[in-house]
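Supplementary notes (optional reading)

For those who missed the lab, this is the record we used. Protein: Angiopoietin-1 receptor. Length: 749 residues.
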Amino acid sequence: MCICPPGFKGKLCEIGCGSNTYGADCTSHCSFYKSGCKGMYLCTSSFGCTCPAGLTGPLCNQNCPSHKYGNDCTQNCSSKCFNQTCNRYTGACSKGCPSPYIPPDCIEKYMYLLNAPELVSANVNDITIKINFKLNNFNSDKGLKNLKHYYQILYKTPEDTTYTHTKSRLLHLNEVKEVTIKHLKPDTTYTIGILLIRNDGNYNDQNIAFVNSKTTCKIPEPKTNDYTIKVTQESNTTKITWDEIPLTPENCKITKYTLTLKSKNVEDNFNENYTIENTNNTSYDIEDLIDNYEYSLIITPWVLSNPLPSSFAYNFTSLYRDQNRDIGIEGIQASTIENNNKLITNYTIHVSWIFVNYDQVNSTIIEPPIIVKYKINRIFSCSLDEIKNANWTSKEVRGKTSYEISDVTPNAQYMIQVVLHSEDKNEDIIQRKNTVYALIPATKPSLRPLLVEPLQTVNNSVTVKWNIDPKNCAKLNGEFLGFFVILYSNNNNQTFEYITKEYYYDSTYNLNSDTDYEIKVYALNDIGYNTEYFLLNNFTTKIIKPVPIIDDLLIYKKSVKNKMLGLRWKYSNVSNIENIEKFNIFVYGTNTTNVIKENNIEPEKCSNWPEFYCYTIKDLDLKNINEVKVNASDNLNVSETSTVIYKPGDKLPSPPLNLKCINITSTTVTLQWDIPWVFNGLLKSFFITVQDTSESEIPEIKEYVVEETSNYTYLIDDLKPGSTYSIDVVAATPYHSSPASIEITTKST
């Protein structure tokens, strides 16, 4: 007989008992307390002894990690669970799982067919498919027989962005069904698949097996061979156009056109075929035909591999071009010329070329005009990438074989083209071969840094922040190295110079107080810096005033579990500051000098200690902190910083303070005490022990702490008149403090 392990039930042992039940049917309870089965050891003859589901550890009192579940936490959560977290008792994914996995355990996928539907037939407007619903064609048979499933047929063309869904139909297991998809487009390829839908509406659309099928079409039958051919000629280009062949919706699409160009002179005996694959284009350009020559043109449409009737022959004569047709340009060169002046160095690009075959034509022909085109291709001060969509500048040159391009950008690459005026429109052939490049050397920067925010002056320190406008990076004119900073003191004529890559200057209290300063910031590249372009600011440091002091900084409570740390301090105002603007709290880690948490708080005194300030830092991992620092500041001054070291070993709270009796009757006494000075944890309760000095002690009293207040009161009743009692009050966090004691005598009746 098969039985489930402790903590599980069900036909496949897939149902977890939970936190407080056990047994083969999960009907037995471990405990009457919230702790449930925690700390118990379950033993069976079949499985031996093990911790209950959801628990592990030597005493079976430790919860499973978030990625484990089951007895003794031996089972892993499904890898498909979000964050791989699951219920430690049942294995159900705590945060769900992605489609197409089935919750709650997220191990199996929703149903899908392993094989795509088979193609039975295809017609002009429909396709018939065969769908296999046999058991071996499903990804899983789990729940297949018990749960109703439906199916939809999905199909779309390559141009469609979404699938068309047929209506849902009931799936009959072990059936092989033929279905016809109607109202389709002729001569079109369709992608077809089957979507299975469970009775709860969920489905798996990520593992669908698809098949491609194409509808048929009818071969068109043109009514005429006259395709209205037209020929237009311009310069070296002969443009041929024709009309589209009229098609019905059921006709096959034209897949290509073949243009056959022949000599009208039969004795020449040559022909040339041009194939046009793009059926949306009913035009074609032919380059460099023989001048003044008679041609015959025939156009043949094709459907798939079948030619349609060819057009009537169309005859035309090519143009006779001008006598400059044999003149060409070669030997294009580009060089940079340095231009020096007192302020800055700049460059000019010298472009030169030579004519080919110019001396072989008639000497009466006027020298052809030249077009010099240029653009910035790369600006290395900004990026190594080519500039997209850069604008060309075109200049027409006559009677010369050179041209100079001025006002060029330093540290940049220029693309230059030199072409005949008649060839300027032929981008692909002429201009590519007539292209040269020129690299402009770097020069000193021609831009000034920008001030990001107003100067911040505090006592004998100043902070200046600047930036470079990225839109003007071309004006860096070279490889950017940082900034050259000059700080000048007007009072004692001292100058301090340094180079930095930072975008700010922070004096860190190293300046003289009550002193006038001037700061200049220059952009610096591999050539140097430009004395004409700089950021200038003047400022005056302030007279140093006494600063406020943080005293008695103390960690008075902490909780690793609640990620909390409570601070208390006293503020001694020895300056002229009338109002504190804020306290600044910095938490430092154990393995780093960096601040791991920073809080800036408004000054607010403790309700429990009115002479002190308090603040509780939350969401803090106490295992990774070393020390806490606090200072005070207003809009001009910052106090000295006080430091307290975090000691994780401190656990005992201090005893309650100022224990006293505020009211006594013959049978009752009212006690009052102040909150302990240090908690070292979370203050949870007070234990009150009352002992009659002449008899045995009264049962211990536990008073829970609802909130932290400056003092607490408690009424002890049922006392004996005229009796003397010794009373101890202990603070609990849950560690117990030493007691605060008092002895009282009730009134006599």
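If you only remember one thing from this example: The two ends are 77 Å apart (CA to CA).
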